[in-house]
Design brief:
Chain lengths: 241, 338
Amino acid sequence: MSGPLLTLAGVHTHIGAYHILHGVDMAVPRGQLTMLLGRNGAGKTTTLRTIMGLWRASAGMVTFDGQDITQFATPQIARLKVAYVPENMGIFADLTVKENMLLAATKASHARDIDGQRLNWIFGLFPAVEKFWDYPAGKLSGGQKQMLAVARAIVEPRELLIVDEPSKGLAPSIINNMIDAFSQLKAGGVTILLVEQNINFAKRLGDHVAVMDNGRVVHRGSMAAFAEDDALQQSLMGLTL
Amino acid sequence: MSNTLTASGPAKPAVDFDWKPLLLVPVLALLVLPVIGSPSTWLTLTVAGLAMGMIIFVIASGLTLVFGLMDVLNFGHGVFIALGAFVATTILGVMPGWTASPELWRNLIAVFAAMLVAMAVAGAVGLAFERVLVRPVYGQHLKQILITMGGMIIGEELIKVIWGPQQIPLMLPEGLRGAVIVGDAAIEKFRLLAVLMGGLVFVALAWVLTRTKIGLLIRAGVENSEMVESLGYRIRRLFVAVFVVGSALAGLGGVMWGLYQQTVIPQMGAQVNILIFIVIIIGGLGSTGGALIGALLVGLMANYTGFLAPKVALFSNIALMVAILLWRPRGIYPVANR
């Protein structure tokens, strides 16, 4: 099927009495990496959570692969091969690294049932996952937890990978690992939607960009064009790439 | 694809188990030994306390998971205890030939039959309880407290309608009466059975929680249910299953509690409820290991203070809970981040 893998059309989201999203319109093209940028409080995380069904859209439509998923429950959306890494990484601190990975491998009953070839590929991307396989995940450093969170999200083949601020608080060397991982995933045909504050990270990886402000998407286009337009960056985000 | 890993010997974690809480039970038991004076009396009280603790653990183990997994405050858990005990009076009542037999195996079959039926009935009622009362109030703590307490009151009244409002004796089968003499100490046979049953329930729960994918999901769900859903699992279904199992375990605990007290009343669930909540708070929300230690401490404390200072016994477990929370404000082994 051609056309975008994911679209949001006029999506509004309320959280309690607060109206957070005011009609978000955006499209995530297949097999490419879309960066969702914006100032703090612009509505980026709310957009991701609305896509995942963790907060219900009060109006508008979310479509995945041509299917209206607006009213789908979160597990239904995840089973469409949509993986989500939240801003807090969602690591199960009391479980081991192995158990965290096993949970994400929905078809595996035991760690030995996880696709070995894919696991080796993940170990190559994120050596810490293999090194600390039997450790409680809560004992990992922040960077190692982020690696585990992304590794867990890709332990099974995915159509869409949604990650909220993957580079937040990471050392430059680990950021490079992340960039390698996302590049390889993109090369493998996985569609990726990233929320990011690290502009250099965004510039190196992004194919497309959507910029949010006050609960709306205020700019859409190619990342390359956005990166070259200082005036646009300044007006939308108050910063320069 | 191959299932062979190229992992070149993953690093093994350093032993980092929090063992200090495990010392609480033996330390408490040994501390009171010189105060009691007589070793035989101490042994009798200790076994009685362990038996009581194991029964409370059986009842509390399901509730702590319900608390931890879905953040549901179920104040109606006690109704399943009473229901289990009353079902047992009926089942044992229709098996007089088995309960009066001098042969122990026939007695045990009668008791196990009563336990199984009580678990089935309590589990089925638990399913209805969750569907009708708990489901509409997810995420609303005040309403959960009110509606589950209301459910317990209705349950108690229904028990009165079926079995009558009066106290009903629940006599031990012939072979479980009396005591085993160890030195100068008399240890009641049923208490040994209660310790054994509690131990079996703990081992079974520990096995499920640590060795199966369902157990992994439960442990993960206790920690972060939203993330479990984001991985594609329907946490609500898991919760219903845990609720039903928890209700069934409360029914089993009710049979054991009734046999321990040898009498049942419709309000017994509400009475035991207080102890269960103390145990869950001491143990830490969502922790079965914590619930076991908490239950044993509560059982021992109740028996020791009941012997040494009966007037203090009424609030001794509250004092125990306060002391534990001063040491560890989130309980012994907290799992749920609430």
